[in-house]
């Protein structure tokens, strides 16, 4: 495998997650990483990590689950049976509260239980709790009062390093100026970064060309024409 361009590959520290994959740290996610790092010395018994899709909140939440031994449950699946799951480990990971909560009263009870037993609950969401439509007033107030750590949209440093890693994973060596060119012309999201790298890899393989600014320009122009109007 050819090495990725050093100028960008070393911009951000690599974080090992469960010993299986790297996590890139930047100003956009540093506060959330700090929250996970500070476990078990949290100043509060529960916290919410909020960020857009693909921002890394699920990745960090699973790191915390591994460290704390927490039971994991999608918010939409919350039911009375989940109380036993919390009690087994005194820690609970509730994912995607923005996608619906199976039982508002159960979540409210679990949050109270964690406070009473000095346990821990970590919740994830694509939106801040104050932006969610929650029917149970007590739960709505409780969620809004919890410490909130927001993951911001990825900055240039993070997106650039992600692009380098994605290209390296596909055994493609791309010059730093090409990475900068992509950043200036593509949507600023992790999902878009993955899509652009996949498109460029496919075109480079089909045409037997290197990934250059010219190829990037052609691929992005073609992709924009194919988007529904």
Strand element count: 7
Apparent shape: elongated
Give, in order, the helices and strands: HEEHEHEHEHEHEHHHH
Helix content: 40-55%
Mean pLDDT: 87
The CATH fourth-level homologous superfamily of the largest domain: P-loop containing nucleotide triphosphate hydrolases
Give a verbal description of the structure:
The chain is about 50% helix and about 15% strand. It has helices spanning about 5-10, 30-35, 55-70, 80-90, 105-115, 135-145, 155-170, 175-185, 190-205, 215-225; strands at about 15, 20-25, 45-50, 70-75, 90-95, 120-125, 150. It is built from 10 helices and 7 strands. It has a 5-stranded parallel beta sheet, with helices on both faces. Strands 1-2 form a two-stranded antiparallel ribbon. The radius of gyration is 21 Å and the shape is elongated. The protein is of the alpha/beta class. Helix 2 (about 30-35) packs parallel to helix 3. The chain has 2 domains: about 5-15 and about 155-225, Helicase, Ruva Protein, domain 3 (Orthogonal Bundle), CATH 1.10.8.60; about 45-150, Rossmann fold, CATH 3.40.50.300. Mean pLDDT is about 85; it is low at about 1-20.
């Amino acid at each position: 495998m050819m090495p990725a361009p050093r100028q960008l590959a070393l911009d951000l520290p690599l974080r090992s997650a469960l010993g299986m994959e790297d996590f890139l740290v930047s100003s956009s996610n540093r506060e959330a990483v700090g929250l996970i790092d500070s476990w078990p010395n949290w100043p509060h018994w529960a916290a919410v990590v909020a960020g857009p899709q693909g921002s890394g909140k699920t990745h960090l939440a699973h790191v915390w689950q591994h460290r704390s031994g927490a039971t994991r449950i999608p918010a939409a699946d919350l039911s009375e049976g989940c109380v036993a799951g919390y009690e087994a480990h005194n820690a609970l990971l509730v994912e995607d509260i923005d996608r619906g909560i199976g039982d508002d009263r159960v979540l409210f009870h679990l949050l109270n239980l964690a406070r009473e037993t000095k346990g821990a609950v970590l919740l994830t969401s694509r939106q801040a709790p104050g932006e969610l439509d929650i029917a149970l007033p007590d739960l709505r107030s409780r969620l809004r009062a919890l410490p909130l750590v927001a993951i911001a949209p990825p900055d240039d440093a993070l997106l650039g390093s992600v692009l380098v890693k994605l290209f390296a994973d596909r055994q493609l060596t791309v010059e730093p100026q090409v990475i900068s060119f992509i950043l200036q012309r593509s949507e600023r999201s992790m999902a878009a970064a993955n899509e652009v790298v996949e498109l460029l890899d496919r075109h480079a393989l089909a045409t037997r060309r290197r990934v250059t600014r010219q190829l990037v320009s052609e691929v992005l122009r073609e992709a924009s024409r194919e988007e529904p109007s």
